[in-house]
Amino acid sequence: MVNAELLEQDGILVIKPEAPLAEEDFKSIGSLVDPYIEKHGKLNGILIQAENFPGWQNFASFVSHIKFIHDHHKTVAKIAAVSDSKFLEIAPNIASHFVKAEVKHFPAGEYEAAMEWLKA
């Protein structure tokens, strides 16, 4: 399960995974951001806040995640991962090979710094 909130004024999506990611999570997030992207042409940023990366529910969930990235990466300017998870710490290095967005890791206590970076 994932909690997602679109901060429309800033064009920033805040994602907080709370359990292994499911296919339905990516459908839900898409239905939240797709109308905004259609209206504004892009999303200024995505902030992923997770104490630990919960992984995926199953292989189909992983595939849904990859499809979501493929369908949206050209319309997102920046991605901030706020976490002490080792996986999310190295994710920006991996993601930089697959997405157009600028990706940056922030330690768990630096939510505000990450938000400022996304807004800049």
Automatic annotation (TrEMBL):
InterPro entries with a match to the protein in the record: SpoIIAA-like, SpoIIAA-like_sf, STAS_dom_sf
Top-rank lineage group of the source organism: Bacteria
The protein's name: SpoIIAA-like protein
Organism: Bythopirellula goksoeyrii
Lineage: Bacteria, Pseudomonadati, Planctomycetota, Planctomycetia, Pirellulales
